[in-house]
Specification:
heterodimer; A: mainly alpha; MetI-like fold; two-stranded antiparallel ribbon; globular; B: alpha/beta; D-Maltodextrin-Binding Protein, domain 2; 10 strands; 45% helix
Chain lengths: 568, 331
C-alpha cells in the first residue's frame, strides 16, 4: 500500500488520496476478493494440503457430473435459440419495412425486465403435462390423447430461458445494425451484388461480433441461472450446477461436505465464466470488423412485400404468446380462491392481493426485506462505487489496475458463487458470523452489484474534465473541498443511475438470496419461490403479480427520469 | 443535494439498526413449520388472552428451521423461545443435545399423549395425520387400501412430497417403509409415482389435476377443500400419524411467557382452533370440526403405525436417498 499515492499527487493531499485508495482496496478485497478466493481455496485445499484427486472425485460423482452436463446442454440450447430469435427480430425491426417497428422494439425489450423464474412459474401453469391450461385445452376440448408439450423437460427449460434471455442478443444486434455505415452495402449493390451476396459478405460479417458477444452473455447467464431450472427441472430430476448447489446446501443445513461439493461446482462455473469472458474480449478486440459510422444514415429498408402481413402477425403473436399470456396467467391465478378452480367470476377476487399486502406476515416481511436490502445495497454501492471509480479514473497511482479487475470481477462471477463465497467468508470461521442474518444478504448484494455501480460512476467521472478540478485547486481549494464542490455535483447523475441500476434488480433477486435466506430474512424472490414450493400457488402468483407491478412502475419511472435528464 | 445523500445513507443504516433491535427486543419468538392458516389464529388468540406478551413467529420447513437453530447455537444464542414442528426425531435429538427446557405441563392429564416416554422436554400439541388426497374429478372410487395406489388410475399421477424438503413427508416415508417394507415403494415405482416438492405443492398439484392423488397432510388438504378445491382426503386403515411436538429452548429469557404459550396451545380454546383447521386435536374434550373426513383422535392413535423415533434419528439421510433412488429407478 505504501507504493500508493505519492507519484504525481502533491504532498499536502497525500493524506486524503492515501485514505481513499486504501479504503477502495479494502472494500473490494473484503467484499469481493475474499469470498471468491475462499471458494477456490476450499475447492482445492483439503485438510491443509492441495488435493486435486478429491476435486476430480466430486466432479465424477454421477449427480454432479450430470449437473455439469445439464448446465452445458441447457446453456448451449438457450444460446443457440436466443441468438437465432434475437438476431431475426433485430433484423426485422431495423432493416425492414415492418409496420409499428418502434412499438415492436419496445415490446421485445420487455422480457429484460421480467424475472425469468416468474415466467417459468407461468409456463408451468400453462404447460405442465396434465394440468397446464394449454395442455388441458388440447386434451379435453380437442380430444388429444396426451399433452402437446411437457414443460418439465430440457426443451421446456430451454424454451422458457430463450423467451427471457433473447433481448441480450436483440439489443446488441439492433445497435450494430442501426449504427452500421449503409454506404458499404450501397457500394456493394452498385458493384452489382445481389441481396444474398450483400447479406453474406457485408452485413453478416459486420454484425457478427455483436451477435457473438450477445450470445456469450447469454451463455454466461444461462450456465449460472437458478430460477427457471429450479421451477421446471427439479421435479423431473433435471439439475444444473446452481440448483444442485442449492439442493445440497439446503438438504444438509450447511454441513461442510455439501459446502465443499458446492465449492468444486462453483469453481467449474468460475472457470467457464472466465473462459467465456476471455472469448468475448477476443471477439470484441478484433477491431477491423467494427466499422460503425456513428452518423445517422438511414439504412436502406428491405421491402417485405407479400411477407409483410404474415411477419407482422407473427411478431404480434410472438409478443402475445410470450409476454402477454404468461403475465395474464400470473395475475389470474393470483386472483383465484385456490389453485385448480376454473377462471370464473365467482372464483376470482382481489382477496389474495389484499391478504399478502396487508395481512400475511411472511409476504409483508419479504417486501420490507427486499426494499430495505435493495435500498441499503444501492446506497452503499453508490458511494463505494463513486470512491473506487474516482481512484480508477482520476487518480494517478500505481496499482489501480488491480482495483479495476477486482471491481469488475463480480460481473463475471455467477450469483450462486458469490452466495457460496459469502457463506464461507462470513459464517464465523474468520471471526464474524452473519450467516442466517439479513446482513449476509446485504454483503452479497454489495459484492454482486458493485460492478454496476463502477460502470455507471466511471462513465460519469470520465465526463468530468481534469481542468475543472485543477482550476479549483489553483484557487486554493483543498482536495476534500474539490471533491465536495466540484466532483460530486457533477457525477450525481451517474450516482443516481447506479442507485436505480442496483435497487431495481435487487427487488426481484432470487439466485443469491435463495442460498442465504433464513426464516426471518426472506426476500420477495425467495417468498415467491418458497410459496410456490409449499403449494401456496395462488399466493405465490399474487405476490409475483405485485412484484411485476413494482418492477414495471420502477422501470418506467427510471426511463422517464433518465430521458428528462438527457433532454436538459 | 449532498446533504440529502448523507441523510439517506444514515437513514439506511438506521433502518437496519432498528430491524436488528426489533429482533433482539423482549418478545416471545416461535419457530414453527405450521402454515400461516394454523399458526396465525393461535398467536392472535394467545395475544388476546395475554395482552402484555408480544409474540412473533417464523414459519418455514422443519429443515430450514433446524439449520437456523444450528447456526444460532454456533453464534452463542438461540433467538427463538419455542419450537413447534412435525419432525419428531428432531425433538429427540435436541433433547439429547441438552438444548430443551424441561417443563411438565399441568395439562398433560387432559391430552392424548402419543409419546410413551414423555418427560416434559416436549409435548404433542397436535396429532397430524397423512392420508391420500384425490382429485375428485379424476378418481371416482375413493382409495380404501394403500395397495389401491398400484391401480392403473394412479399410474404416473400419484405424488409424494420430497422427504428432503418436507419433514412430514420424511415421517410418512419412514412409517410406510416400517409397515410395508421397500417392496411398497418398488411397486409405487412400478406405477410411476412421482416425487413432488414441498408437502403443500403435491396437494395443490392434486387440486389442479397435475396429479390424480398425493400423500397429503390433513390440514393443508382440508384448507384447500374449504376454499373449494376439487379434492378429498381418505385414510387407509394403517394410519400415518406425525404428532407435532412443541418445546421450550433452554436459556430463554421469557421462560414464564413460553410456558404460558405452551399451556395456551394445549388449552381448550387453542385446540378448538387446531381442530377447526382440519387436523386432530390432542385434547379428549375437543371434537373434530364438522365437514372434515377425519378419524377420531383416539381411534387414529390406535390405528397409527408405530415407530421408534430414536432409531429414526440416525437413518435420515440413508432413508431419503434410498427412497429417491427407488422412485427414480436408480437402484
Amino acid at each position: 500500500m505504501s507504493t500508493g499515492a505519492k507519484g504525481l499527487q502533491q504532498r499536502q493531499n497525500f493524506g486524503v488520496a492515501q485514505v481513499i485508495l486504501f479504503l477502495s482496496i479494502a472494500v473490494l478485497v473484503i467484499v469481493v476478493a475474499v469470498p471468491v478466493l475462499l471458494i477456490l481455496f476450499n475447492a482445492f485445499w483439503v485438510d491443509g494440503h492441495f488435493n486435486l484427486a478429491d476435486v476430480i472425485k466430486v466432479i465424477s460423482e454421477p449427480d454432479t457430473y450430470q449437473a455439469l452436463i445439464n448446465s452445458l446442454i441447457i446453456s448451449a440450447g438457450t444460446t443457440i435459440g436466443s441468438t437465432i430469435v434475437g438476431t431475426f427480430f433485430a433484423w426485422l425491426v431495423t432493416r425492414t419495412d415492418l409496420p409499428y417497428k418502434g412499438f415492436m422494439k419496445a415490446m421485445f425489450l420487455v422480457p429484460f425486465m421480467l424475472p425469468s423464474f416468474i415466467g417459468a412459474m407461468a409456463w408451468k401453469m400453462l404447460l405442465s403435462p396434465r394440468a397446464g391450461f394449454i395442455n388441458r385445452f388440447f386434451m379435453r376440448d380437442l380430444g388429444f390423447d396426451g399433452p402437446i408439450f411437457n414443460i418439465y423437460s430440457y426443451a421446456g427449460i430451454i424454451l422458457v430461458e430463450i423467451m427471457y434471455l433473447f433481448p441480450f442478443v436483440f439489443i446488441q444486434v439492433c445497435g450494430a445494425l442501426e449504427r452500421m455505415d449503409p454506404t458499404l452495402e450501397e457500394s456493394a449493390r452498385i458493384s452489382g451484388a445481389g441481396l444474398f451476396t450483400i447479406t453474406r459478405k457485408i452485413t453478416i460479417p459486420l454484425v457478427l461480433p455483436s451477435i457473438l458477444s450477445g450470445a456469450l452473455l447469454i451463455m454466461l447467464y444461462s450456465m449460472a441461472h437458478f430460477g427457471t431450472v429450479a421451477v421446471l427441472g427439479i421435479e423431473n430430476g433435471i439439475f444444473n450446477i446452481p440448483t444442485l448447489i442449492y439442493q445440497r446446501i439446503h438438504q444438509s443445513a450447511g454441513s461442510f461436505a455439501s459446502i465443499r461439493t458446492g465449492t468444486v461446482l462453483a469453481t467449474v462455473l468460475v472457470i467457464t465464466a472466465a473462459f467465456i469472458i476471455w472469448l468475448q474480449g477476443k471477439i470484441l478486440t478484433r477491431g477491423h470488423y467494427q466499422i460503425i459510422a456513428g452518423k445517422s444514415f438511414r439504412p436502406m429498408e428491405l421491402k417485405l412485400r407479400a411477407l409483410k402481413a404474415p411477419l407482422f402477425i407473427f411478431c404480434l403473436a410472438y409478443i402475445a404468446f410470450t409476454i402477454v399470456l404468461p403475465t395474464v396467467v400470473i395475475f389470474l391465478v393470483g386472483g383465484l380462491k385456490t389453485y385448480g378452480l376454473p377462471f370464473t367470476w365467482e372464483n376470482l377476487s382481489l382477496n389474495n392481493y389484499k391478504f399478502i399486502l396487508f395481512d400475511y406476515k411472511l409476504t409483508k416481511d419479504a417486501i420490507w426485506n427486499s426494499v430495505t436490502l435493495g435500498f441499503s445495497a444501492a446506497v452503499i454501492t453508490m458511494f463505494a462505487g463513486v470512491m473506487i471509480s474516482y481512484v480508477i479514473v482520476k487518480m494517478k497511482v500505481r496499482g489501480k489496475g488491480i482495483l479495476e479487475f477486482l471491481g469488475m470481477l463480480p460481473f463475471s462471477v455467477p450469483g450462486s458463487v458469490i452466495a457460496l463465497g459469502v457463506i464461507l467468508a462470513w459464517s464465523g470461521k474468520y471471526g464474524v458470523n452473519l450467516y442466517n442474518t439479513v446482513w449476509i444478504i446485504l454483503v452479497a448484494y454489495i459484492a454482486r452489484y458493485m460492478a454496476f455501480s463502477l460502470r455507471a460512476n466511471s462513465a460519469a467521472l470520465e465526463q468530468v474534465h481534469d481542468s475543472l478540478m485543477e482550476a479549483a485547486r489553483v484557487c486554493g481549494a483543498s482536495m476534500w473541498q474539490t471533491l465536495r464542490d466540484i466532483v460530486l455535483p457533477l457525477v450525481k447523475p451517474g450516482m443516481i443511475a447506479a442507485f436505480f441500476l442496483i435497487f431495481l434488480p435487487s427487488l426481484r433477486e432470487l439466485t443469491v438470496s435463495i442460498m442465504l435466506y433464513s426464516p426471518t430474512t426472506r426476500t420477495i424472490g425467495v417468498a415467491i419461490y418458497t410459496l410456490n414450493e409449499d403449494g401456496e400457488t395462488v399466493m405465490s402468483a399474487a405476490l409475483a403479480g405485485i412484484a411485476l407491478i413494482l418492477i414495471v412502475v420502477g422501470q418506467t419511472l427510471i426511463n422517464r427520469f433518465t430521458a428528462r435528464k438527457g433532454a436538459k | 443535494m449532498r446533504n440529502r445523500f448523507v441523510v439517506a445513507f444514515f437513514a439506511a443504516v438506521l433502518f437496519f439498526a432498528v430491524c436488528g433491535e426489533a429482533l433482539a427486543a423482549q418478545k416471545l419468538i416461535i419457530y414453527t413449520s405450521m402454515k400461516e392458516s394454523l399458526i396465525g389464529g393461535i398467536v392472535e388468540g394467545f395475544k388476546k388472552q395475554n395482552p402484555g406478551i408480544d409474540v412473533d413467529y417464523q414459519s418455514a420447513g422443519a429443515g430450514k428451521l433446524m439449520a437456523k437453530i444450528a447456526a444460532e447455537r454456533e453464534s452463542g444464542k438461540i433467538l427463538a423461545d419455542l419450537i413447534w414442528t412435525s419432525e419428531v426425531p428432531d425433538f429427540y435429538s435436541m433433547k439429547q443435545q441438552g438444548i430443551l427446557e424441561q417443563y411438565k405441563t399441568p395439562l398433560i392429564g387432559e391430552i392424548l399423549n402419543p409419546f410413551g416416554d414423555y418427560d416434559g422436554y416436549f409435548t404433542a400439541a397436535r396429532l397430524g395425520t397423512l392420508g391420500i388426497a384425490i382429485n375428485t374429478d379424476q378418481i371416482k372410487t375413493p382409495p380404501a387400501q394403500w395397495s389401491d395406489l398400484f391401480k392403473p388410475e394412479y399410474k404416473g399421477a400419484f405424488g409424494v412430497a420430497d422427504p428432503a424438503l418436507s419433514g412430514t413427508s420424511y415421517m410418512s416415508v419412514a412409517l410406510l417403509e416400517k409397515q410395508f417394507g421397500w417392496e411398497f415403494f418398488d411397486k409405487l415405482y412400478g406405477n410411476k409415482a412421482r416425487i413432488g416438492k414441498g408437502s403443500g405443492q403435491v396437494v395443490d398439484d392434486t387440486a389442479s389435476g397435475e396429479l390424480a392423488a398425493s400423500l397429503a397432510v390433513d390440514y393443508i388438504t382440508n384448507d384447500k377443500i374449504a376454499k373449494g378445491a376439487h379434492i378429498a382426503l381418505y385414510y387407509p386403515p394403517e394410519l400415518l400419524m406425525a404428532p407435532s411436538p412443541i418445546a421450550i429452548f433452554k436459556g430463554t429469557l421469557n421462560l414464564e411467557a413460553a410456558k404460558k404459550f405452551l399451556d395456551y396451545l394445549l388449552s381448550y380454546d387453542a385446540q378448538v382452533l387446531v381442530a377447526s383447521e382440519g387436523t386432530l386435536s390432542v385434547r379428549t374434550d375437543v371434537k373434530n370440526a364438522d365437514g372434515f373426513m377425519l378419524p377420531e383422535a383416539q381411534d387414529a392413535l390406535n390405528r397409527a403405525i408405530k415407530i421408534d423415533y430414536i432409531e429414526m434419528m440416525a437413518g435420515k439421510e440413508a432413508l431419503i436417498k434410498k427412497f429417491t433412488d427407488t422412485l427414480q429407478g436408480k437402484k
